[in-house]
Amino acid sequence: MWVSDYPFIREGEFCATLSEWSLSKFSSAAVSTVSQLRWRSLPVRSKVIVDGPVSFDGRRPKQSQPSIEGQNNGPDLSDARRRNGCASDNHHRCIGDEALILISLRCRNLTRLKLRTCRELTDAGMAAFAKNCKGLKKLSCGSCAFGAKGMNAVLDNCSSLEELSVKRLRGITDVAAAEPIGPGVAAASLKTICLKELYNGQCFGPLIIGAKKLRTLKLFRCSGDWDKLLQVIADRVTGMVEIHLERLQVSDLGLAGISNSLDLEILHLVKTPECTNSGLVAVAERCKLLRKLHIDGWKANRISDEGLVAIAKSCPNLQELVLIGVNPTLVSLEMLASNCQNLERLALCGSDTVGDAEISCIAGKCIALKKLCIKSCPVSDNGLEALGGGCPNLVKVKVKKCRGVTPEGAEWLRASRPSLAVNLDTCEPEQDASASDGGAQDNVAEPPAAAAAPAQVPAPNIGSSSAGRSASFKSRLGLLSGRSIVASTLRRWSGGNSSSSSSRGE
């Protein structure tokens, strides 16, 4: 079977979504097809997405079920389920060791692997896979059952690994007795590490510290005190250019450690209420190459003009600034507009102090500004009128949930600047808030009462079942999800330019 028979496969890349029924009943014909797709196309990169469990209700979108057994549209899923005696099975089934080992034997040139909800996958299966696919470059796993031994097997065998993303690794249960993960031979090549929703993400400390070429570190909703580890990481790993911290127990001590990353260009601080002006000043004074700064202050009022003025004074290369739940005034906005001449993207969300006067200041002094997002701020039509004659390079304005702005005001702005894209949404403010997995903030809202007086995150009580642990984790970290204008706007703004590997060339 040639690659040309599969329009969803790009030349030089094998991509298949493998469900439980297709792997557990993997026929010799299917194995032959996978093998031919691999070696006949002579791929430099290969990719397999193991997506389990797959619901047997037949409602999975067609485009997520590429054929691996036929030349045209592949086997009908309902027929396959009936042949395998699964038509009346209402339970989810998961990819296991045997299936993953089969992939590793037939696809030894595999470079990218994505595992989701593979709860029957064990340390032994991961170890066997790692020995067969030593050229792996990207690994992403979420809600899988294997633990530290399986992860260490990958790190000990895959010397070309560049990107590692781990979310809710269920095989690591006891925080105190968790086996250290890494560094292994993979530490020499790792450039990106992303850890999400882990009780004990700190057991990855040896790996992070040992990854001397690490460029991007993302930590989302991982419990425990991260201050000391961040200090050690910044001392040992000096080349980091991008750091994301979201709903993490980190204070100014951790930010002081981060300030040792002198090449830092991108920093996201999302809902870290123990971080204050002092920590931001420390980062500003040493990380002078900063280009992108996202702060979700959760309306804790711990970061204000003092920290923003320090950024304005020390980081003249700033191109993108996102402030959510932060209250800047004319003092800091004037300084940012005057000193950061390259500022092109600005988002102000949930700020009680950003009104017409502040928008007028931005309009008059932010000469390079191209895109502006204003959400849940006390701005009126007068502020939009100021934009009519300011910001000569402005191409897009998004205004959402600003009660003082009327459709007539938006129409006036469109009429006065026909080349300007004006997006107005006057719906009522929402009551929840979250940040996306990519680090861009979602809806702006008040934090829990505890956020006003930050306290240490208690060590989670690990239950005997994964379900109990998941419920406890969500309740402790207050996970909220959703999509909003800010996340959408920032994704369009970035346009793929936030990659750490190309950040210097911008």
From TrEMBL:
<dbReference type="GO" id="GO:0031146">
    <property type="term" value="P:SCF-dependent proteasomal ubiquitin-dependent protein catabolic process"/>
</dbReference>
<dbReference type="Pfam" id="PF13516">
    <property type="entry name" value="LRR_6"/>
</dbReference>
<protein>
    <recommendedName>
        <fullName>F-box/LRR-repeat protein 15-like leucin rich repeat domain-containing protein</fullName>
    </recommendedName>
</protein>
<dbReference type="GO" id="GO:0019005">
    <property type="term" value="C:SCF ubiquitin ligase complex"/>
</dbReference>
<dbReference type="InterPro" id="IPR001611">
    <property type="entry name" value="Leu-rich_rpt"/>
</dbReference>
<feature type="compositionally biased region" description="Polar residues">
    <location>
        <begin position="63"/>
        <end position="75"/>
    </location>
</feature>
<feature type="domain" description="F-box/LRR-repeat protein 15-like leucin rich repeat">
    <location>
        <begin position="250"/>
        <end position="411"/>
    </location>
</feature>
<feature type="region of interest" description="Disordered">
    <location>
        <begin position="427"/>
        <end position="470"/>
    </location>
</feature>
<feature type="region of interest" description="Disordered">
    <location>
        <begin position="53"/>
        <end position="82"/>
    </location>
</feature>
<feature type="compositionally biased region" description="Low complexity">
    <location>
        <begin position="445"/>
        <end position="470"/>
    </location>
</feature>
<dbReference type="InterPro" id="IPR006553">
    <property type="entry name" value="Leu-rich_rpt_Cys-con_subtyp"/>
</dbReference>
<dbReference type="InterPro" id="IPR032675">
    <property type="entry name" value="LRR_dom_sf"/>
</dbReference>
<dbReference type="Pfam" id="PF25372">
    <property type="entry name" value="DUF7885"/>
</dbReference>
<dbReference type="InterPro" id="IPR057207">
    <property type="entry name" value="FBXL15_LRR"/>
</dbReference>
